[in-house]
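Input sequence (351 aa), recorded before submission:
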Amino acid sequence: MISRNISGITVICLIYIFAIFLRQPFSYILNISVLPLSLLCLIMGILFFNLFQFSEKILKGRDFIKKNILQLAIVLLGIKISFTQLASVSVQSLGIIIITILLILLTYLALSKLWPVQKEISKLLAIGTSICGVTAIMVSSNVLKSKDYDVGTAVLIVVLWGSLAVFVYPFFIEWYFITDLAKGIFLGVGIHDTSQVLAAAMVHNDLYQNNKVLEIATITKLHRNLFLAILIPSLVILKNRAEKTTSKNLSILEKIKNSIPLFVIGFIVLIIIRAIIDSYYFSSITWMNILEILENVITIFFGLALTALGASINLKKIFSQSFVPIVIGMVYSFVSFFTICILIFILGLNI
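Predicted structure, token format:
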């Protein structure tokens, strides 16, 4: 598979290396101590792939990195996270995730009355904003039998607002929140797509040297991803009820199983491995060195994935969309934004 995508992988790697070389001069020009490499990778990807035309073979290599290398980086990130961290974030974040999803779905019901023509796009945007961005849209569109145009529009708009969040939220959370828990949960729930959550968390990590926020944001986002296991059977049941047909239990169970991404399972497995190794070799110098090497590998993988993510953002297509779907996406983003901010303070997570 890698050999078929080698040209595209090479282009993304070259852009990533170019971003590394540009980091120091740009930091000097902009008069800032550290320019986040993750942010620069994202910008370089956007610029190169919007200014120049690339062949289909290169685009396939870009997509290979965006999907597979990112997922591998997420899996490896599990080795840095202990069971204690996982449990503490789970309790705090699940309530915020559930309430945010419910409020966005209520907003969808209101918007579908206001703009009935945009009902299908609005439904996909609500699903993408509340659960896990592009993945949720793609999975749910298969169940809903959505039109290609609606799916494409929803994906572009989720990418648009999620990308804006990548540029704004790392600075916002440092200004607005005090605790690492609040910062990480806000990023994990407030940004739509998994890759965008990790991009924002990496930018924050590069700016403020706070790896804890990255870990909490990752855990929180992966908890949101698991809600796909509830979403898919719910959509199947509602669709069958609307069509007055019955569905076999086996097909629903298969959809539940298929809705849980493999990289989420891998992430959890490595957390378990980390817990086992910590109990025996926690103070081992060799184990500490391995973790340090893995951290460098993860950073490289994330840099490549963020470059590919930026390269997949088509500015022309985003700006050519009707303003109504863009406004709908903005409304969902604002509902999510204010809900999370309020709930973090109500639950006392910022103390």
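Checked by second reader. Residues 72-346 form one domain.
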